[in-house]
Amino acid sequence: MKARCLTLTLGTAGALFFTGCATQAPLFQYRDTGDPVEDGIHAIENAPAKDRVLWQYRTAAIAMRLHKYDLAESLLDDALASIGGIITNDKAARKARSLFHAESDKRFIGEPYERVMAYYYRGILYWVKGEIDNARACFLSGQFIDGDTENREYAADYVMLDYLDGLVMQKLGNEGSNARDQAEANSRYETLPPYEVDHNFALFVELGIGPRKYATGDYLEELRFRSGKKQAHSAVVRIAGQKLDILPYDDLYYQATTRGGRVMDHILGNKAVFKSSTSEVGDVALLGGTLMMTDRNLREAGAAVAAIGLISKIFSASTNPTADTRTWDNLPQYLGFKSLKLTPGDHRAEVHFFDDEGKPLKDLNRSITVNVTEQLRNSALFISSKKH
User: Total structural domains in the chain?
Assistant: First the structure.
């Protein structure tokens, strides 16, 4: 009987070991032809399905910077439709929460600040078309996502989203002072300008390079963020004889690092505890079993104990608590906004960027021609310090 039990135990251990050594599918290789839009579309079509939303995010941001608004709209609509119902019914997400699958196995929807940016960009695209009511709906969706946090101190504290909420409400003939007061209370950079409901043109400006994710901890189970490289911190836009100073309303690094606890923090923590404890049990059992086998009378029992230790070590090795560090890596760090009144026709906008010490970044400067139509009472231009 002892021999039979030992055979079953070692057989189970071997099965677990070889299951863990299954052949991996080839990794997707990003194609870099020099055309970031075409390369992004190629990635969307050829990367693993779990990364599709990530590539839609990245490619939409590129399209917006190149003013390919229709493409950005299509990509964001598809991405937002995908993430809308993903949290409760996605099989891969449930699998990732188990002990033996990596977080990166789940379908990417992004950390809250990344999902907020998807809604923010979609709101800008609505504003470009003059649909400010739909734009407001996107901004409110972003605030809702940011508001679902354990640490209420940092809940729904995007200055830009509250400020724009109040501005649209006033443009639509409603009271928007409460939203503006909330934005003012959270502002860390400047006194917010008063609402000018007769302004027919908005400038949405993004500056700098956004946060990056990395993992720390004994088992790389702790998701952390680092600030992007220093780049543009402010801008000056000259258009139709007007000089507009653009300073940050929001800092995405601040948003990424202050939102508070996440459900996955606890899940990854439990994974790490399980990995550590099973490894320790395995060490003790393997050592004890080996010592027992030196005694002829305890040899079979020692082999059984050693087998249990082997199983524990295999379970430990199979447990994957590693945090998901996939990142929407072409986001900005800062968000800025200005509105103005322009007459119908073509206008030349000269954009100059500056670093955090006020020094000009001449290689980032550019000229943009915008057209204001009489039909649109509200339109917008998207400006980025990133080339694409």
Answer: 1
Give me the pLDDT at residue 314, please.
47
CA dist., res. 124 & res. 101, Å (int): 37
- For 203-251, write each residue's pLDDT tens digit: 999 999 999 888 887 766 678 888 877 789 999 999 999 999 999 999 9
Q: Which two tokens stand for residue 182?
A: 């909330």
Dist. CA 90–CA 209, nearest whole Å: 31
C-alpha torsion sign, points 173, 174, 179, 181 = positive
* Burial group, residue 334, by CB count within 10 angstroms (0-12, 13-18, 19+): buried
* Residue 291 maps to a domain: no
Give the separation between CA 122 and CA 125, rounded to whole angstroms: 5
Is the model's pLDDT at 286 over the cut of 70?
Answer: no
Chain segment 169-182, per-residue pLDDT in tens: 999 999 888 999 99
pTM for the full model?
A: 0.75
Residue 104 lies in a domain: yes
Residue 251: both structure tokens together: 């800092």
CA angle 155, 157, 158 (to 5 degrees): 135
User: How many whole angstroms separate alpha carbon 161 and alpha carbon 367?
Assistant: 27
Residue 191 located in a structural domain: yes
Residue 108 scores a pLDDT above 80: yes
The separation between the first and the last C-alpha atoms of the chain, rounded to the nearest angstrom, is: 69
Phi, psi of 274 (to 5 degrees): -60, -45
- Within-domain flag for 17: no
Domain that includes residue 97, residue range: 36-266+323-384
Q: Tell me: the pLDDT tens digits for 110-158?
A: 988 999 999 999 999 999 999 999 999 999 999 988 875 555 555 678 9
- Distance CA(56)–CA(40), nearest Å, equals 8
**pLDDT exceeds cutoff 70 at 64:** yes
> What sign has the CA pseudo-torsion 94, 100, 103, 105?
negative
Structure tokens at 3: 């021999």
Give the integer Cα–Cα distance in Å for 226 and 346: 41
E runs forming strands in 18-100: none
